[in-house]
Design a protein that fits this description.
The protein has 198 residues and is of the alpha/beta class. It is built from 6 helices and 8 strands. A 6-stranded mixed β-sheet has the order 1-5-4-7-3-8, with helices on both faces.
Length: 198
């Protein structure tokens, strides 16, 4: 496909010169520019490195029919740093903080996050990471469960995903995985009740 040629015009040159004259410190950073464009209204934009996900146009390119629940095995800030490091080759769409249930969006829902360890599952799912460790249930706070369940319910409503355990799955359920998250301390009965109540 041919791309249209960019022709320099006097107006374009003047606009470029005016833009160049604006002090860099006054320009909005990438987070500020994208702040109002998150997919989930109560989330904060904390972008993953573009080297850690695949740009796409879901659900046109791939149908979204799963939500995959993860536990980070890391702190909230440590997980954001991992997602922002292009050498790590991993990301998720969302990250939920333990203490207060704060939600960060790290990858647009239209894009393919690299969270499942399986390309087919990555293309068809929204990945939600939760701060904590599988063997430390104190990280699974009321706020974490409630905010995550609200997020999962909203994703399911948006894409017509049934709110059941066939479509809302743990990372351990991905064929061929060696991961155990969210682990035996994750209260699936409670979580699914909250998802279906939201």
């Amino acid at each position: 496909m041919n791309q249209p040629r960019n022709h320099l015009t006097r107006r374009g040159i003047l606009q470029g010169a005016a833009f160049a004259a604006v002090p860099y410190a006054l320009l909005p950073g990438p987070q500020a520019a994208a702040q109002g464009a998150v997919d989930h209204p109560s989330s904060e934009w904390q972008p993953a490195s573009s080297g850690n996900y695949t740009a796409s146009s879901r659900p046109a390119a791939y149908k979204i029919d799963r939500v995959i629940i993860h536990v980070t095995q890391e702190t909230y800030t440590g997980t954001l740093a991992i997602f922002q490091n292009p050498e790590k080759r991993v990301s998720a769409h969302y990250l939920v903080r333990s203490a207060d249930g704060h939600v960060a969006q790290c990858v647009r829902e239209a894009d393919v996050a690299w969270h499942a360890g399986d390309w087919g599952y990555n293309t068809r799912s929204i990945g939600i990471e939760h701060e904590g460790w599988v063997d430390q249930p104190a990280y699974f706070t009321n706020a974490l469960y409630e905010q995550s369940a609200g997020l999962t319910a909203a994703v399911c409503d948006k894409y017509g995903i049934p709110k059941d355990r066939e479509h809302i799955i743990g990372h351990f359920q991905i064929p061929g995985t060696d991961h155990t998250d969210p682990g035996v301390n994750w209260d699936w009965v409670r979580y699914m009740g909250l998802v279906n109540f939201s």
